[in-house]
Each structure stands twice: as structure tokens, then as C-alpha cells.
Amino acid sequence: MALKQIYLTPPEKLFRECLLDCRNAMIDVAGMKNLEIRWTGGWVRDKLLGTTSHDIDVALSTMTGEKFGLALQSYMKEHAQKYEQEAQKQGFKAEIKNLHKIAANPDKSKHLETITTRMFGIDIDFVNLRKEVYDDSSRNPQVEFGTPEEDALRRDACCNALFYNLDTQQVEDLTERGLEDMKNKIIRTPLAPYQTFKDDPLRVLRLIRFAARLNYNVQHDALEAMADPRIHEALRLKITRERVGVEIGKIMTGPDPYGGLTRIYDRDLYKTVFADPNSTSDKIDEQSFPVALDTLKNVLHECSAICLVLKPKDDINMAWSLAAYVPYRDNEEAAVTAAREGIKATNAVVKVLGEAIRFRPQLQGIVDKVVNASATRAEVGITLKDAGKSWRYHILYSLLCDAVDESFQEVVERYTAFVKYVQEQGLESAAELVPIINGNDIRKALDVQKAGKWLKSALEIVIEWQFANPQGTADEAREMIKQNRHQIQELGS
């Protein structure tokens, strides 16, 4: 067993002290006498990498998370002030919250009930060490208390199976490969990959996410198991789409979305992850997915003019989500449904995706007119205003879709010309432009007492005039309305 020292922050030191004090003070509680307490998984890995972690999973050898949590809650009723004062002395808050239970859901591969709380600025899960026993009569395991070794072997990756023992204050590498894998930057499963993924298919996406986040390589055997159609089917049917969406969201907002999403495509997982799991009839151009990924990656890293105006990094999840649904670019309804049901995309992403597909022909037209020097400022402004506040992402989606059928260089040149025109003409706030004169002003200018259908047309004429005359005044707008009386009446009739 490999041992390695970890250095705790002041909040972590106080939390460790609190747990050990609780164990020693509550010795009469069943299971407390011989209790070993370990911090597990991602926290240990991140500490060894020198990365700050604000989440700790607490593994208990002889008690369930609920029983220990209740004992801790009882202990803190009498002793909380001691830790609060110590935390205050060291310059942080104790933040001692109530316990919250998260139930197990074996049908969706969540086999263990956990107890969560927050203390000392740390999000905490309490759970017992366990082993999972499978048999041929059920796809759901029997979860039992396990040894530290059994618990480590049931985890998704060796580098995530490290423990920190609160008594010895040492790292325990019970798979005997976790520290070595970190040194060699490898992601591999403690047990056979196929069995690991079959037990919990979400581990496929978790390993892809960790590989992208840590810049590690996935072991060849695990890559092969990830591509197994039986694992894909289990992931589609067995895992809630909310859990799939959480993993995809973490990939998209992580340090290497391109690497993570590319691995999904390379393992033939695109439909399994991004399609509506209840539909098998959607026509999807899967081959356009890697093109969209390459295009967005290059835009983010090479196209400063486009990024300056479109600002895709302001909502990087939105940008990569749009790239993910380029294969649905010709079917708004299927795209919206797939995003909503496949990865449980947010309402904001679903809305922008649907609008981007619907509005794309109009945007393509105005981009071409700008490139051909045949567009007016008013035409571009009205188009952007029609697109609304999300016009930047509509343009980005159009660019990504165009790159499927054209060379990257040609597409970038066209869209660079367009965004430069928008910037030079001061049209970046076009979507927020309001009429310089209101309905009452227009009625007075036309000497009309009652509003009618014509008023909407009149306001649109005012907006168009403002785009064409950015320095125009309200008095000039009123005069323009008077001169266009007959046109307004005809439009409103």
C-alpha cells in the first residue's frame, strides 16, 4: 500500500478535528467505537495535484452516513460554538448546515443513499464503505458494508479510488495503481472496464470528463469497452438524463470541452448522449459533429475579431451546446426535443438553439449581403434586432453550420467581414434599440386622435430610419413621419 502526505487547509484541519472529536465523544453510539474515517475520491486526487477542492466525501467503516450524520448533528448542538469561535479566529466561517438525505435509486444506477451537509465552507457527503454484489437475476446490485479495499475496487477510476485516513493522515492507494496512474497521467478502471461500465454506465462519461479535465489518456481496454454497443444501450436506458446532462455540462464548462466531446464522438456515443432517447427516427448528420467541434475550437483560439464581437466565451456552455446540435441544423423541432430530452439542456439553451435554426436563413442572407457590399446599415440593424438579445449566438451557430459544407477559411473570412461591419457601424446594441419617438409622438405628428394597426408599422419605420440615421434627432424623426404619412396609412390598412 502506497503512502503519501497531504497538507490540509485551515478549514480542512478544523473539519478533521471535528470528525475525530465527534467519534471520540460519541463512543456509546453503535458502530462508533471502532470507526475509521477516510476522505475519499476526487478530493484526494485534487489535493495531490495541488488543486483546491471544496467537496469532501467522507467514507465510514462501521456506520452508515445517516447514523454518523445524526450523531454529528447531536454532537454539534453542544459543541458548535467551539468550532465557530476557532473558525472565526482563523478567518473563515464555520457554516454548519443541517443534514440532507439523498435516496438511492438502483434502477438508475445510484446504488447508495448519501447524507449531505456543509461545514467550514466545505460541501460534504457522508457514506459507508461498501461493496456491490451482482447476480444474474437482477441488474441492480446488493449493496453491503465493505472493506476499504472492496470500496476502492468498486470505484470508477484508480486515480479516484485514493483514500485519506484521518487517523494516520496518510494517503492510502488500495488499488496499488492510483498514484502510479497519476504519475503516468492515465485513466483506468480498478476492475475490468466492461464490468465497471455495465455496473454503472454513467462511468463512461465520468471517465471521459476526468480525462479531459486532467489531460490524462484513457487506457486502451477502457476505450474499447466505451465503444461497446451494449454499454451504449445501458447508458441510454439505465441512467437518468439529468445525470447525463450533469456530466455533459461539466465537460462543456471544463478546461478541455473539445477533448471531452471528441472522445464522445470517437467512441460512437453521439446519439446515445445527445439524441432524444425516446426517438429512433430522427435524421441526424453525425459526421458534422466533429466538424462543428473543430470549427468552434479554432474560432475560440484563432479568430480574435469574431470572438471580440460574438463573445462566445461569455457563456461557453451555450457555445459548445450549439456546436453539439449542428447535426440537427435542418430540423428545429427535433433539435429542440433532443436538447431538452437528451441532455436536459437549460431552457435558455433550448430557446437559443431553436431560434438559431429558425433564423439562420435570414442571417445567412445578411452576411452574404455585407460580404458583397450590398447591405445597408438599416438592413443589418433590423436583422440583428429581429434576432434579439441572443443574436451573437445565432450568428455563431450559423457560422458552425456553414463550416460543414465550406472550408473553414472561407467561412471565417465571411463572418469576420460581417462582425467587423457590425462593430464599425456601432450595431452591437441593435437588439436593444427603442424608437426615438413613441406612439403618442407619432399620433401628434400625424394629427391622428386614435391609434390603429398603422401604429406598429409607423414604429417599425422609425426604427429603420434610426438605423439609417444614427445621429438623427427626435424632431427629425417626427418630420420623417409626416413625410411618410401615405406610406404609413397604406401599411396599416
What is the secondary structure topology, with strand pairs?
Blueprint: E1 2-5, H1 10-25, E2 37-40, H2 42-48, E3 55-60, H3 65-90, E4 100-102, E5 114-119, E6 122-128, E7 130-135, E8 138-145, H4 148-153, E9 163-165, E10 170-173, H5 178-184, E11 186-187, H6 193-199, H7 202-214, E12 217-218, H8 220-226, H9 229-238, H10 241-252, H11 257-266, H12 270-274, H13 288-302, H14 304-310, H15 316-324, H16 332-342, H17 347-371, H18 377-387, H19 391-405, H20 408-424, H21 439-446, H22 454-468, H23 474-483, H24 485-492
Parallel strand pairs: 3-6, 11-12
Antiparallel strand pairs: 1-10, 2-3, 2-9, 4-5, 5-6, 7-8, 9-10
